[in-house]
Each structure stands twice: as C-alpha cells, then as structure tokens.
Amino acid sequence: MKIVSFNVNGVRAITKKGFIEDMQKMNPDILCLQETKATVDQTMDALSDFEDYMIYGNEAEKKGYSGTAILTKQVPLSVSYDIGIEDHDKEGRVIALEYADFVLVNVYVPNSGSDLRRLDYRQEWDRAFLTYLKDHEKNKPVIVCGDFNVAHKEIDLARPKPNYNKSAGFMQEEIDGMNAYTGNGLIDTFRLLQNDEVKYSWWSYRGGARFKNIGWRIDYFLVSKSMKDRIKTAEIHNNVMGSDHCPVSIEFE
C-alpha cells in the first residue's frame, strides 16, 4: 500500500498547477491533504477528477483557513473527525480512517505563528493529540501523517542555529512536542529508512528559498512500533511543485 501526504496550501489553487496530473502519476492508494483552505463542498468540487477515490473532508469554522482531506481507493471501516476536545476541534485539522489492521490519521498541526502567539496553544495541542493517538493505538497500530510544523532536529532544516528558539517551527517547546511523539512509541519513517539524508519538505516563498534549497523538513509519517518492519519506502518528493510544501510518502506491506 502506498500513502502520500501533501500540504497543498489551498486545494482550489493547486488544482490549477498540475496537481491532478502529479498525483495521478504517483497513484497512491490513499492521499492525505492538509491546509485545503476550503469548505468540504469546495474540496469535493476541486477534487472531482479523482474518480477512483472516496473523498472525506474536514473544514475550519473560519473560512479559507486550515482544513484537511483524505482520498482513498479502499473503503474504510469507519471515519472520524477531530480529536474530541472543543478547543482543538474548530479548525478542521484531523481526519482518521480505520482499516482492518491499522488506523490512518491525517493531521495539520497548528503553527505557532511568526510572532509565536500560538506557542502555548501549540503545546496544549501536542499533548492532547498524543493522547488521542495513543488512545487509537490501544486498538490498532497507527499511521499518522501530515504537516507537523516543526523541524525535529538540526539535520531537518538548512539553518538551524539562527532559527533555534527564535523561529516558529524550531522552538524548543515544539521540538519537545515531537520528542514526545517519538519517545512514546511512534517512529519517524523517513529517519528509519533514510537515516542521515538531508532533504526538506517546505520552503519559504521568500528569497528564492526553494531554488537555493534553504528548507525545512516539517512533513512526516509516524507509525506505531509494531508497523516498523512493514515500512518498505519513505520518501520526500521535492521535485513535485504547486505548493510551498512537497509531498511525502510511505509504502508498506
């Protein structure tokens, strides 16, 4: 099975930038999208060319903000939205599909903001989301993918020193949040298979950052330990354009 995750930075915009052709070429069994910036109806309309997939969407109360979607060729046993905490369930950030032997969770983790205004909230989110994942894990192994809005280690961003404890995405509090995920039995699949490879999944639109490859790895696939030996590939597809992010993927048995 192949799963692709992609922060599209606006699902309606990206469909005009070769997205449909790119995804058809990748041909995933499941495609998880973050930052759709659309209502569920608008998302369904934008993705109508994906005729081989069932589509599930989640939207924010605030129009044109956040939002997630999953396209799947395989019928899930169940579908759920959000994490069951009112303070965290207003921005359409989570969709979970249950299959026979795993639960897939698609997430768009809150950004702390350029002024770090949401850093405290971000820490609350990380704690609540970890509890949510571990609750799922009591029943089945978990695959969680999406934009986690944090570079976990220095290798995961081009300029760690000037950004450490100064920039959203590389604050120690955010790193601690990712440490909590990986320290509680969730495995970073890219690091599992690629070890010390330097590759990024997000680049600022400013200063030609993508052309210069001044980027950050903030998009992840994490899996339960019991799935570790089933993961066959974990890739970052930085040749795919259309967003300030690029797709990431895993294949597993």
Short description:
With 253 residues, the chain is an alpha+beta fold. It has helices at residues 11-14, 19-26, 40-46, 119-137, 160-163, 172-183, 189-194, 209-212; strands at 2-7, 30-34, 54-58, 68-72, 78-81, 94-98, 103-108, 142-147, 186-188, 202-203, 215-216, 219-224, 231-236, 248-252.
What kind of oligomer do you see? single chain
Q: What is the mean pLDDT?
A: 98
The low-pLDDT segments are: none
CATH top level is Alpha Beta
Description of the structure:
- By secondary structure, the chain is α+β, with helices and mostly antiparallel strands.
- The chain has one domain (2-252): 4-Layer Sandwich (Deoxyribonuclease I, Chain A), CATH 3.60.10.10.
- It has helices at 11-14, 19-26, 40-46, 119-137, 160-163, 172-183, 189-194, 209-212, and strands spanning 2-7, 30-34, 54-58, 68-72, 78-81, 94-98, 103-108, 142-147, 186-188, 202-203, 215-216, 219-224, 231-236, 248-252.
- α4 links the parallel β7 and β8 (142-147).
- It starts with a strand and ends with a strand.
Which descriptors apply to this entry?
single chain, 253 residues, 6-stranded mixed β-sheet, 14 strands, globular
Give the SSE layout:
Layout: E1 2-7, H1 11-14, H2 19-26, E2 30-34, H3 40-46, E3 54-58, E4 68-72, E5 78-81, E6 94-98, E7 103-108, H4 119-137, E8 142-147, H5 160-163, H6 172-183, E9 186-188, H7 189-194, E10 202-203, H8 209-212, E11 215-216, E12 219-224, E13 231-236, E14 248-252
